């Protein structure tokens, strides 16, 4: 091969940039002659005789410029049958027009295909096989023989035993060895387009390099090539290079500025650049003569370099060599030769520890260059024979913090690579090649993947090892990022489950995570003012900087995509263990932090947003979907592994971050910037879900503040979503509305559009309802169970911006929601209901797969029957198999046959499935609640054979596997504070006369009572709802004119409460009976006008104020006291009516008055019963001493108030409320009231109240 090397060195002087065909012919002749052993195996490849060419080709001494008009011998290759070796991947490169088969049953996924040569129809009888033909841009390969691509062994139609002679094998190896040594030695000095070199060449930057000196230094060494590599000192080219950020017009402008050519000529050159990657603009005898033209050409950001003719032709030779390699590894007329070439190619390129014959010296660089090693690392420059690896990989764990910059806790690898293979250097050097040559490299790389299984595994190891540096080189030095081989390698390599499992098992994931985190932090991040974390941002670039910044953006997106592929298509069943045992865990958290709180939204007030942008929605999905998908896959764990240790590690790191953020979380969602993207919360949720409940209490007990911090973040997103849905953020436009919709949507129907258009680059696209919203709810559930319930409830009320309404300081109309208050309450009830009833994430076996799918079908059909096409449309984008869909559908639905020619029939839900449905389920949107509820009532009345007004819908539970967790849930929802919230919500609905959320609220109360009834500690939980006058409100609703569904439900709950507690039954019934008895007594006296307490309440400011403010303080008074206070109010009006009627003989009352003290300590309920009886006996005359009766009444109430009200702090709030209701000034009047109350023995408490009302 020495003659071949000499020939290659001596070839450039014979040609110029125009002689591309001549260069290619000479290269092909030389290498084909060499690979056949200078004619020994000529007949194995070509027709004709070797003797006919031996005289000309022998010794490689022919004149390169002669005989170019004749047809070269290497085009006569003959014909042969295609085949590939047994037990080996076919790897056939699919060309335009080739048949491609895909079998849904046999293939691992839809990327696994079979070429027309290998496809055996006997393997796929009755299978779902699709056939299509390769297009012009197809660069895929046949996967036949790859056991990771198919579920079973295929009987290939073209496998055979292929072999070549030993000597022939040696010639193939030597020819390829020479080819790639030449390619690498030349490309090692093709560095003028690299940003670091280009910006410091000639009179630029720090003037590190001189064009002529750099070209001379790049001469190939005599000791290796056997000839002097003479430079062409009298011929220098000005070369304009292609990039991804300039169009034809911009290129033509640059060309005309540098050359002065007319438009037609400039357009021709621009097309050449677009097709081949570069073009020569001018030629001069001296490089400095081209500097002015170079400056003009680069005015708009294009890259223009100055090269000697020798250097340019050498790169043409490199392109021809790589083209020849592509031809021999796809050689069609001799399969044995082709397969041996592929085999030897793998052996050669994958062999480690390649050494260059010559490289740049560190002495060439002046000492003024700072961070030289870093610049060389980013450019892929080999200095002193090695390429330093400064990848940000190794984490100093004690220094790690989510709030610290990466450079503060990372130690660069810094070990000089002594084992880089030819493959790895080709990967680093790829950005130096022109466009056509880059595409050739891609084919060579893919041929290694499509060869032997061992070669594929070795390729994967070396590619991942080089990944970190390759990504940074691509991001910071690539001018044609769209041509990067990484995208094509991903499709062929990272779709293999075995390869991806190998990446995790080798603890190599950090080689992807480290560099992408480093790139985001240094070039695409912005500090989030809310959580203090660095967030990824959109890279905005101008014309002059877009070349650099677009490649960074592309590199970040590609790496995130690669990570999703590694997680998604993986054989490992315990990914979490693989990433938690090394630096990958820290890198994964670092990656998540860049998205935590990303794209915050601030509510717009005043004018509506001026412009609606679909781009905002697209960016939201591009940010959220991949990172949430990563959190989903990263937590795949073996239950037997110590997941609790991983959770402890997470909380320790998160607590460290929380401690460094001293800012107090804001409670105003409607004012402050809030994000819907919280991947760290989702990651924590999945860790919590995977951790045994027995370990959770201890782990969270040490980190309760961290859990509350996470809860604050999740809850803000939930509230933001709810506020957007009720129209509070309407001025922000539809983009925010769509983001909120995607955040909480469980269907992929709309999201599938962005996925199918490949706008979202991720191996898996799932609904954010599953990935994000449900996880935020789970974090909130976890806090309810394991944190302080009062703190969590306060957080809920504060963040929902209901604190002042809850405490009675303002009415609903004065909250931020104004006239949308009822809709905000409706959203709150739905969220709380889901949290209470759906505890599936606390189950040992979470409900997923077919059962969940059937459930969704049921809810789709529950309100009306639908045709198959309508049903399948609702599930569009959910990656469902039509056959599986039909199986699930037939399980829960019946087909109603078509009734006419145009009718296709409809599916109706089976009657028994109506019993399993809940109108407030997470599968039902709030807008469908009423229609679903009505449908359920209608169908259940039929199946139960009862009237519709007798049907009460039962709430459905998904309980936790652990009884302790279920008890914790119930304890939270039966606290006095939560009971007060339920009471106020019910009172608000009654007072407003609106039914917007009352039906949902009653359904929620029903769920609580059902859970209470099933609890072993029922009495303890029930007391909270007995101790507030909830029964009174239920009675009011049951007797109201609200819809039938509401009144029936209220009556059912009232009866349920009475049946569940004896005290409730006795007290409530006696109260009602007493009032009814008194009404009957009054009626028997034939009075002209009897005032009903409820009638008076509607017009009397006294009752209005008392009822409005006193009823809102359920937790402050126990039920007995509150109930009797209300009774006092009602009876006061009855007594006033009696006074007005002149129907009492006051004398009879004196005996009762004397016995008052004997009864004061008795049960309040009994005392009032006696009071009624006394009045009953006293109604014997038409005259009554009004003043004495009034004094007796007020004195009695004074004593009662002193016993039952003086000790209640609520009374002070009541006085303040009454004062506020009547427009009084605050401080002075309160002081006077306090003085009055302190003299209660002389002035009746109620006398004071009467005075206030009177004045």
Note down, in words, how this protein is organized.
With about 1250 residues, the protein is mainly alpha-helical. Among the domains are: about 55 residues, Cysteine Rich Protein; about 180 residues, Ribosomal Protein L30, Chain: A (2-Layer Sandwich); about 110 residues, Arc Repressor Mutant, subunit A, CATH 1.10.10; about 120 residues; about 130 residues, no CATH class. It has 57 helices and 14 strands. Strand 11 and strand 12 form a beta hairpin. Helix 9 packs antiparallel against helix 11 and helix 22 crosses helix 25. The radius of gyration is 41 Å and the shape is elongated. It starts with a helix and ends with a helix.
Structural class: mainly alpha
Cα distance, first to last residue? 117 Å
Task: Label the overall shape.
Answer: elongated
The Rg value, from CA coordinates, equals: 41 Å
The beta-strand count equals 14
Average pLDDT, all residues: 82
Uncertain runs are 1064-1130, 1132-1184, 1189-1194, 1197-1227, 1239-1255
Percent helix among the residues?
A: 55-70%
Count of discrete alpha- or pi-helical segments spanning 4 or more residues? 57
According to CATH, what is the class of one domain? Alpha Beta
Q: Mind telling me the CATH superfamily name of one domain?
A: Ribosomal protein L7/L12, C-terminal domain/Adaptor protein ClpS
The CATH topology of one domain corresponds to Ribosomal Protein L30, Chain: A
**Fraction in beta strands:** under 5%
